[in-house]
Amino acid sequence: MAKDVIIDLKNITAGYDGEPVLKNLNLYIRNREFITLLGPSGCGKTTTLRIIAGFLEPDEGQVLFDGADVRGLPPHKRQLNTIFQRYALFPHLNVWKNVAFGLKLRKLPKAEIDARVAEMLNMVNLTGFEKRTVSSLSGGQQQRVAIARALAVKPQVLLLDEPLGALDLKLRKDMQTELKNIQQQLGITFIYVTHDQEEALSLSDTIVVMDEGVIQQIGAPKDIYDEPKNAFVADFIGESNILDGVMLEDLRVKFANMAFTCVDRGFEQNEKVDVVIRPEDVDIVPPEGGVLQGTVTGVTFKGVYYEYIVDVQNFKWMIQNTQAHSVGDTIGISIRPDEIHVMKKSKYSDLIGDYSCYSEEFEELSNPEEDEADE
Amino acid sequence: MAHTPPRKHSNAGVALNAPYLLWSLLFILAPLALVALYAFTDAAGHFSLSVFRGLFATQESRRMLSRVFSDSMRYALYATAICLVLAFPLAHFMAHTKASTQRMLMMLIMVPMWMNFLICTYSWRTILETHGLVNTLLEALRLPSLKLLNTPGAVILGMVYNYLPFMILPIYTVMARMDTSLVEAAQDLGASKLNVLRKITVPLSLPGVVSGVTMVFVPSVSTFYISQKLGGKGSLIGDLIELQFLGAYNYNLGAALSLILMAIILICMMVLKRFSDREEGAFIA
In this predicted structure, what is the pLDDT of residue B10? Predict the structure, then answer.
């Protein structure tokens, strides 16, 4: 393990009222990295954060901070700070007093507090808002106050619990950039919790994908996107066509009744596998030129590209492409070997079907339901 | 269009409000007007300040008046303070315990309120009297008996017993609605339990404290039944007023005393409001 590990969670098991939430979780976090815990609601990501912050004691396992066990150490003695989901700004204090809260508790000299608060408010572009009440601020401004308040006390680690969840899309994008800039500027560790995979991909150095209290995959955003470990990760991160396949031999996989050349090896002969093909990796060609043929059953214009639902042998694929086609068109499909990703079968394999009943709203709703169904 | 069309719901609004307006007129405003009328007229019904002048005329009556008022204020302040000291920790505990315990405690607090307040007060006599429950117990333990009934302590006890729920409920309501993440945020920023209480819980529950204090202080300062049944002679302002209406039949004096009491309560409330506003104002200014 690398030397610069700042937080190390070892064999953590935790739950509420006997209901297990985390199951034997192991995770280390390196100093100065932007790490994101990503997963659907109920996956244990917030619980993990609360354990690190000290609001929840794990039933079993160790939390090491800089190598020292922090079991039993109350939150106010830990060298880290949290941005809460709904900011948790103190409604009876103005902006200045909110930001100065932690500094005053540390009994710093007045001049130092003044300077530090001014510096923080300047960093989040809220200079001039010192005397404003918290309730008179917009959501984005409240968010900035929360950031300034947490960073004023110079934590080594900042925990962020879905900090942008309450903001509208445009503001969320701006704040994402801002958060990333702040993190790089201060050079401290950010542990970020979100269910938004796009947010996770664009911000993180490392992503931890979780489901049902178990870490499904840890890796850099690109690795997680390109090489998902199982059907859950492939489905949760971005869009994926996940097909049943059989590994004929190294570099040969059969799916959709066709044998394809791929780049994966190390499976047993004739092992059943999940095959992932990202919608943007599928090329649309004239019907006679494709390895597979399909019929367009749905088209959504997405601005830069079209999103097609294509029926190939009764399996609905999602394909993203810039060419215009319309419903009913027969098209050819071609896939390059390195665009085929083969995964081991997992308990998620049977849960994730094709795109036959796909809608974005449904996608949002279906994730927590899947969780419950699995328990 | 030259003018805005009439708002349709306003007629319905008046109709809906009418019963309440009528009620307020008949049972709040009219009695107040009567009190004022009596206070500022003499026995013959002519306008005069003679009642007030009479109250402050002799040194003896001035002394009597100041004693009655200061006793009433003191007892009410004690009762309010004791209620606050008892209610705040209890409300805090209730707001943070599990739901089933909350419901049970709430029941226990409400049960005494199901009984008539006169009966509750009267029952305390049987507990406190010379051969009452407490002294019987002391005798059985071969301890000297105590004079409990007809003491200032008994009056304050009666006030605390009867009005404690009115202190607990508003504070509990405010605390139960308080966002727990505020407490966590304070801890997160380095606040110990004591600091969380001082800097977050207490300031944020002030609105509940203010309404609790009002709801205990106002009935305590004007009570007459509790002081008569538990204090023996009944020497508080409420007793004096009751005596004028039901004993001496001096309505003018009774009304004048009532007005003075109302003025005092009003001043107390304004001070309290100034205090709580300043607390909040400090955050804004």
Answer: 66
Instruction: Out of A132-146, B193-207, B263-277, pick the least confident.
Output: B263-277
d(CA A194, CA A237): 12
Q: Are residues A192 and A328 in the same domain?
A: no
- Whether residues A60 and A156 share a domain: the answer is yes
For all residues of chain B together, what is the average pLDDT?
Answer: 89
Of A84, A97, A133, which has the smallest distance from its Cβ to B181's Cβ?
A84
- Residue B96, min C-alpha distance to chain A (Å): 15
How big is the A-B interface in CB pairs under 8 Å?
66
Q: Would you call B188 and A90 a contact, using CB atoms and an 8 Å cutoff?
A: no
Which residues make beta-bridge pairs with A293?
Answer: A332
Sheet architecture: strand order including A19-30: A19-30, A5-16, A60-65, A68-69
Structure tokens at A142: 């409240």
Q: Which residue of B has its CA nearest to A75?
A: B188
Instruction: Kindly state whether residues A218 and A252 are assigned to the same domain.
Output: no
**Which of B181, B189, B203 is opposite residue A102, by nearest beta carbon?**
B189
Average confidence (pLDDT) over A301-305: 91
Q: Which residues of A touch B (CB under 8 A)?
A: 53, 55, 74-76, 81-82, 84-86, 88-94, 97, 101-102, 105-106, 131, 133, 149-150, 153
pLDDT of residue B3: 57
Please report how the helices A169-186 and A139-152 are oriented relative to each other, as an axis angle in degrees rounded to 10. 20
- A234 assigned to some structural domain: no
Full strand arrangement of the beta sheet holding A157-161: A80-83, A157-161, A189-194, A34-38, A206-211, A214-219
One domain for residues A83 and A194: yes
What does the alpha-carbon distance between residue A247 and residue A273 come to, in Å, rounded to a whole number? 7
What's the gap in Å between the CA of A293 and the closest CA on chain B? 55
Q: Residue A346: which domain range?
A: 241-374
Which of B181, B204, B285 is the closest to A92 by Cβ? B204
Indicate the CATH number for domain B59-284.
1.10.3720.10
CA atoms within 13 A on the CB side of A54: 23
Contact A256, A328 (CB under 8 A): no
A134: domain CATH number is 3.40.50.300
List, as one string, the DSSP characters of B20-52.
HHHHHIIIIIHHHHHHHHHHTB-TTS-B-SHHH
**Taking the C-alpha atoms of B3, B4, B9 and B15 in order, what is their torsion angle to the nearest 10 degrees?**
-20
Domain count, chain A: 2
Report the C-alpha gap between B280 and B204 in whole angstroms.
Answer: 9
**Using an 8 Å Cβ cutoff, are B177 and B253 in contact?**
no
Residue B30's Cβ-count burial label (10 Å; 0-12, 13-18, 19+) is: exposed
Average pLDDT over residues A321-332: 92
Q: Are A269 and A247 in contact (CB under 8 A)?
A: yes
Q: Is residue A305 part of a domain?
A: yes
CA distance A159 to A89: 16
Whether the Cβ atoms of residue A69 and residue A78 lie closer than 8 Å to each other: no
Residue with tokens 């938004």: A196
Prediction ipTM score: 0.82
Amino acid present at B118: L
